[in-house]
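Students often ask what a holo structure prediction actually looks like on paper. The answer is less mysterious than it sounds. You provide the chain, you provide the ligand, and the output is a string of discrete structure tokens encoding the 3D arrangement of the protein together with pyridoxal-5'-phosphate.
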Amino acid sequence: MNNYNIKFSERFNNLGTETAFTVLAKANKLAEEGNSIINLGIGQPDFTTPEHIVEAAIKALKDGHHGYTQTSGIPKLREAVCKDIIRRHNVEINPDNVLIVPGGKVIIFFSAMLLGENGKEILYPNPGFPIYESAINFSQAKPVPYQLREDMGFSFSAEEILAKVNGKTSLIIINSPANPTGGVVPEMELTKLVEGLEKFPEVALMSDEIYDQFCFGSTNFKSMLTYPSISNRLIILNGWSKTYAMTGWRLGYGVFPPSLFELAEKLAVNVHSCVNTSAQFAALEALEGPQNCVKNMNDTFKRRAEIMSNELNKIEFISCQKPQGAFYCFPNIKKLGVSALELQNLLLENVGVASVAGTSFGVFGEGFLRFSCANSDSAIMEAMERVSEFIKNKFS
Ligand code: PLP
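The corresponding structure tokens follow.
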């Protein structure tokens, strides 16, 4: 019996969650009960962290790096982030603007806390990573979704975003390559957005570039760091979770404009003091060591995304845009006449294929399912066969 009367803060009524974790728990339970489950629900690489990176963390522990570090991160790591940015985008960043954090997710929360409050509006992609909407709600700003368009390869329309900007808008969140759609926003659309923002100098931009090293070539990725005209109001979210298969290490970074950096660092002192020290040494090795592990993972995800989208397109009533990046397929299931959540549950319970309903990523995700490519080619083929058989039997 619940016999205590603690009243939690009202603001927690606004906090959302990430349903992918609920699907994972359900899939694991079914697997423990002896069912054959293929998990295409989870959004993390199915690779282990490369050995040289693991070794660097072990060495750091053996060398006695057991204490706190500077809140913003060890200086060598912040410098290495800047060198990596020069190497990949040819843009010079001051290490003083780089904040090392326990996971890219922290930057979403910090951005919402820094720029959101009652009376403000924050724009975010829908369907999109669910933590955007959750963090905006928690900040008490009004979440204003803009739609990612299937007929534009799941890009946004800059015109549509700009039409939603008004005097209350404090922040626009963008994400490319995108979770859950696998879309990459073309340079033309990014440029239009930047040009349009000239009229709104008080609006900040947070660009979530966590999947930037998983791009499949047809639409090239362009970092928002390459637009100098917005550098004084741009926050970049990036990290090691996806690029180096380090989701469980909890490592990410933000690049903040000088006007926001000190506040973000202050938030970090209040929340987590610093990132796990040995993990920071691993992160340093990840950036300074060989990069072929990143290329191998990108090639693998590219191949699997191709296999999966081809197989999905062979299934009656289903159509799937070819993903341009990240590691997800986001097929359109509208012709089946069931909701995304119904199909998610039917597939898991009847044929043991775990996916995530598009509605877990916002209202505009209705009519879509997210399948993750973070599983072997053979598991993907087997899962697609199961889905195909199920749909043939139930819907034809
Ligand atoms: N941004 C997007 C779009 C993501 O998909 C994720 C993780 O799934 C994150 C941020 C958070 O990454 P991290 O695990 O580094 O916190």
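The pocket of pyridoxal-5'-phosphate is lined by residues 43, 103-105, 129, 175, 179, 208, 210, 239, 241, 247, 252 (CB under 6 Å).
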